[in-house]
Amino acid sequence: MLHNEFGVTPVDETIEVSSHGQNISFEYIAEKNPEYLFVVDRGAIVGGESSGQQTVENDLVKGTQAFENGNIVYLDPVYWYITGGGITSTAGMIAEVEAAIQ
């Protein structure tokens, strides 16, 4: 949705499109050096504990443009993981992406 609907350019054009994402490493993120990094903290929903920021913001990711420019965006997991597709959640998704890229 970020790429196709909102027009966010993927940092890797060869990555497989999947509704559940794809496993990558922090080394991969550092190598690709994204301008933006959008994060959905699944643990905040299914496990009850939010650990996304502590996990993502490690030494490798801290060397990316996204971190250095304050462009690691923690998306609302309710919108992006649980209720995606409804009118309210879609409006919330649009607002989050719009705020991030302005």
TrEMBL record:
Main location: membrane
InterPro entries, alphabetized: ABC_transptr_periplasmic_BD (IPR002491), Bact_iron-sidero_bind (IPR051313)
Record protein name field: ABC transporter substrate-binding protein
Transport keyword on record: yes
Subcellular location: Cell membrane
Topological category with respect to the lipid bilayer: Lipid-anchor
Positions of the Fe/B12 periplasmic-binding domain: 1-102
Protein family membership: Belongs to the bacterial solute-binding protein 8 family.
The entry's keywords: Signal, Transport
Native organism taxonomy: Bacteria, Bacillati, Bacillota, Bacilli, Bacillales
TM regions (residue ranges): none
Keyword hit for Signal: yes
